[in-house]
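Ticket #4471: complex job returned nothing on first submit. Input attached below:
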Amino acid sequence: MDVILHSPALYSPMAIITLAALASFASRALGTALSGRILADSPVIEWITAVTYALMAGLVARMILLPIGALDETPDGIRLSAAATCLAVFFLSRKNIGLGVMAGSLTLMALVALSLE
Amino acid sequence: MLIMGASFVGFGSMIKNMDWSLGNALYSTFSTWALPGQIAMAEMAAEGAPLMAIVLAVFFINARLLPMVASLLPQVRREGMPAWGYYLGAMLIAATSWVGTMRRLPDLLPDQRFSFMVGYGLLLYTGSPLFTAAGYLLAGHVPEPITLGLVYLNPLYFLVLFLVDLRSRTKVMALAFGALLGPTTYLFAPDWSLVATGLIGGTAAWMLGRRARTGGAP
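Support reply: We reran it on our side without changes. The output follows.
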């Protein structure tokens, strides 16, 4: 099965994107079909929310600690400092997402630029 | 809305960074239009994770759309609207458009609501590819440090996004378990690490949360 799924035809960007899109639309379609019939605080919805949160936290931790691509070559310290700056500005600005993200991204740009000199 | 734009810029840079085409980046934004899933897909595909793992991870991440759609649609029902109209409209429901529409509903007459949802959703939906393309094209043409800063936008965005509302103990535990399990499971099962993180971390947090509320009983 894995051999088939890893064949170049199926493991192409277009195929991956299409399947990801269908996996996303499934929830929208199911939500439409069930609209009005499920309660926001039902146990199933709570479980879905918890799984989403855990998955996203895992993804973010991985992207910061074990990045792929070009970020892979930046020192851990730079990525961690940028994340710390982002968090600090976010909390100091009474949870302003835009300011936090901007500060973190600029920190990364500045530290990488300095390290290249 | 600006923040959403910035994160599509980040997505475009990320796709450029993994050597996929601009067409791929735009196709993903048009067809999926739910950024967390798009980022998980790109991250996992870049690592060569199995197709099945990618589909499951995207499904679980974007499953949060299910309760959002189910709670919004009953409030925008309109006389004479065919069922397929709602399925089409659901495509325009994602985090930003959901919050924006929910907030405005009380000010609108019942038969204006569906139009508002579609109009606002379309504005965001058609803007997203522009930001995606901008990120893709910028990443190839600006100096390396700036490209890296753009690629890093999304990890930073989702780092703080989920910290905005921490009133629920279950959510806090899910975040903590996920942050711990994500990198650790990656070290010995990279392909299935994210799916396992979501299912194990999320289920554990959910069970502990329910137990705390019911006073010990599972």
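Chain A touches chain B through 79 residues (CB under 8 Å). Closing as resolved unless it happens again.
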